[in-house]
Design brief:
2 helices; about 25% strand; alpha+beta; about 120 residues
Amino acid sequence: MLSDFSGSKVYLACGYTDLRRGIDGLATIIEQQFRLDPCSDALFLFCGRRTDRIKALYWEGDGFLLLYKRLEKGKFQWPRSENEALGITAQQYRWLMEGLSIQQPKAHRKMEKIKFG
């Protein structure tokens, strides 16, 4: 089900989040800490100290959808260094859901336009 959001903006709440929080608590973090609109067309992902589970918050137009995913084996490669909302690409989102790091050192990076002549 989480793979259905690849067309929306995706934000990771870097660092640790208390996953006991519900919809209102997570929406408050989005608004007050990250200065983003929780009712925008974006999927917001949160991870606690245990990196085997995440919560996701998504506004569907008439209400919030709260998703919870727990891995039976393995851990999510979650960025812990900053306390901010990190916007990620659809490819990085797929990597994260597959258990990979969002920073793939061997992946081809997009380049800026090259001027010829």
